[in-house]
What does this fold into?
Amino acid sequence: MRFLASLRTGDHRLTKRIASWDSPCVRDLLPPVEAAAEHTKLWWAAAAAMAVGGGWRGRKAATAGVAGTALAELLSNGVAKQLVKRRRPPKEWIPHEDVEERPESSSFPSGHTAAAVAFTVAVTPTWPWAGAACAVPTVLVAIERVHDGAHYPSDVAAGAVIGLVAAALVRATPRLLLRRLS
It folds into this structure.
């Protein structure tokens, strides 16, 4: 019980610290990242760019990325958010105006982070350079979710785990199907 209380205290402390970042770089960079990540627009655009400009490798990476994102969305928003009801961080902890635009759904887990991680991890084995490029906005999406008061860091971490699981399942599915059909 003491361990869980310590985790919760650390989670709350880290939320307040990240939400209070007020550098011009943070204030200029994070809002456009959030807008691009809303409804997975960023990942659809990345998939389209890969498919159009990347030849067979780009199409394969884009397909894996989109499938990973779809599965992560299903697992995070369709399953986990229905099972775990958690309130968003209190508005008083967020010292900027972005706190007014928070979603009404459960805070746990971060669906944005799950989708971002799933896309990036699913793309990387096929096209490592594209995966590395996607890693940058993935990290920014995770930071932005806490900075804007939409999530606690533990929500973002859970979303990342869901994204990893979704990407692993997407990557393993073709091999499992081929084995099953053989």
Remarks:
- The chain is about 75% helix and 0% strand.
